[in-house]
Amino acid sequence: MNILDKERKLLALQKQISELGNSEAVSKLIEEIETYKREEMSKLSAWDRVLLARHHNRPKTKDFIDYICDDFLEFHGDRCFGDDASIIGGVGRINGIPFTIIGQQKGYTTTENIERNFAMSHPEGYRKALRLMKQAEKFNRPIITFIDTPGAYPGIGAEERGQGQAIANNLFEMSKLTVPIISIVIGEGGSGGALALGFANKVLMLENAIYSILSPEGYASIIWKDASKASEAAEIMKLTAYDLEEFDIIDGIIKEPIGGAHLDKEKTYIEVKKKILSEYYSLKRLSKAEINYLRNAKVRSFGFLQRFNYENIGGIAK
Questions:
Q1: Given a cut of 70, is residue 211 above it in pLDDT?
Q2: DSSP 205
Q3: Quick one: CA torsion of 102, 106, 112, 116, rounded to 10 degrees?
Q4: Is the dihedral of CA 166, 167, 171, 174 positive or negative?
Q5: CA–CA separation, 103 vs 184, rounded Å?
Q6: pLDDT (average), residues 241-269
């Protein structure tokens, strides 16, 4: 039984509460629900986490922005071709502190998903993101990116307009920025489409998010010529937050409510906001040179299982 089957059973139990008039029966049912969540919905396979990362009701970038920001002003367009609705970007204040905030946005409905291209960005989306990052550098604003995409859009038009070059240029330019960058994988972190916003000083993941070079279905199709083996592929790919933390690819995991972030969105927003501010204050005391050096050194260290200690950097950037 996968996590979605378990969730259906949970919803059925919760529905019974409204049908019961006896307060004692309701109390017993609530206790049964909590026990079921602890014993069944906390046992997650890699495929379960893939399903949760893709859950239609999972909090999206705009949800996080609306909750954690005192105010937010969105900007549009790449000043070259057009605006890409799959990426939201602008300036917002969190506890009075101005941040440049950029994130991939999935739709809430089928119609909106089509409008936002299912969060699969075109080159103009990445160029819009880079324009805002350079603006943040100019005004010395820290940057937050929310990552949630199956991957960059692979269509002919996107390729004609320089999809690969746009992603590569983002990585190149982000390597030169001297303001703090905090990236959070909130759902799917797929391929170069995710990496284009993920070259950061601190990369965090929600507990049930995923981050990988391609989808489990794509992996299964390449390795076994059978996309139906996606659940098997997910176990092999090491795409969960716990796998990536062990390999030092990410810097931390933000816990979710049992059963997924969508079951208690407000609690998830609060935890993300706390983590953002904690990481910001940690990075704020570093010089611009140190921020830039540590971001690049962190990426170069991938594969060496090496973690940087921000408490004792020893003047390495001087």
A1: yes
A2: E
A3: 60
A4: positive
A5: 9
A6: 94
What tokens were used for 219? 């992996």
For residues 148 and 61, the answer to whether their CB atoms sit within 8 Å is yes
User: Which two three-digit tokens encode residue 164?
Assistant: 């690969």
Residue 240 DSSP class: B
**Range of 27-41, 251-265, 297-311 with top mean pLDDT:** 251-265
Yes or no: say if 214 and 192 are a contact pair by the CB < 8 Å rule.
no
296, pLDDT greater than 90: yes
Start-to-end CA span in the chain (Å): 55
List, as one string, the DSSP characters of 130-168.
HHHHHHHHHTT--EEEEEEES-S---HHHHHTTHHHHHH
Q: Residue 260 carries which side chain, given as an amino acid letter?
A: G
Q: Which tens digit of pLDDT belongs to each residue from 109-144?
A: 999 999 999 999 999 999 999 999 999 999 999 999
CA nearest to 170, candidates 128, 130, 123: 130
CB of 36 within 8 A of CB of 220?
Answer: no
Q: How far, in Å, CA of 259 to CA of 238, rounded?
A: 20
Judge whether 22 and 29 are in contact, CB under 8 Å: no
